[in-house]
Predict the structure.
Amino acid sequence: MLLTFFLGMVFGALLLYARLNRFDVITGLALREDLTVARVLSLAIGTGAILVNAEVALGVASYHVKPLLLGGVILGGIVFGMAMAILGYCPGTLAVSAGEGSLDAVIGIAGGLTGGVFYTLVLPYIRPILGPDLGKISLRSALKSNMVFFPVVLLLGLGLILLSFFLDRLEGTKTKRWVISGLGLGVLDAILFLRPVSNRPIGASTTYPYIGDLLSGLTGSGYFARIKTPGAWEAVFLAGALLAGFILSLFKKEFRLILIHENWKKHRGISKTGRAIWAFAGGFLLIFGARMAGGCTSGHILSGGMQFSASSWIFAVFVFSAFLALGPVFYRKR
């Protein structure tokens, strides 16, 4: 648990270093004004793909491919993408920004806990729409020959790395902090995959139904029994990320309690009540969508992307389609 907490702090520090947790950066992508998130994800997935598959080939790590629950991945991806645009955070960045003093992130966490409890309650009724379960499909299962698979992984990994630098050149940024964060996240995820370390990938969204169910007394459900172990691990991991956000923001003299960020003020106004309501609703939908899909930005897109999991890449397509479609509409200029 101490190692998990420490690695969570590293995770939080990497997000904070390139300001990936910031509301204005995430909504900047929704508005096509800031490509930081896209650059970092591309670099991290490309780096992690090469490292993780090398570890598996050496026998020191295992794959953790999520099953392709077609309805859950598609519908959950759409809900998650829309919620991320509204909230301006994902499950992992919520913790880091809360540590920095962002009150809308704290409200989003409250919404996420409520969404997690609600998902536990309604799961028996919505289970049919989450299917069909097509199994754990990945590039590895499709290309059975190692002689073909590993060269393809290397090419795809390098392609994603090159894409990140192409996006950087396209945007013309001066800072290279995103390079450190992208490489760091790829290496960190690869470390977590190692059997002696944790034998699991980075994840965040299971924390919310786990803690929500604990607080509401829903520990007797079958769903809680299934998420108990990963939920406890992710809760410790995100606690480390939250503390990293708090300590580093104090060290950099950037800690401040803030509810309305610049992009929200510019496009949605200065109503504190309005921001609070949307933050809670966004957090609720974010976790509900993540649970429908079985993962989030870190567990599905980042970690699943490294494994070239079919469910994770399909989830990513629907997340960013909904995210980029809703962003300009929700943040239309007044």
User: Anything to note?
Assistant: Residues 222-251 form the longest helix (30 residues).
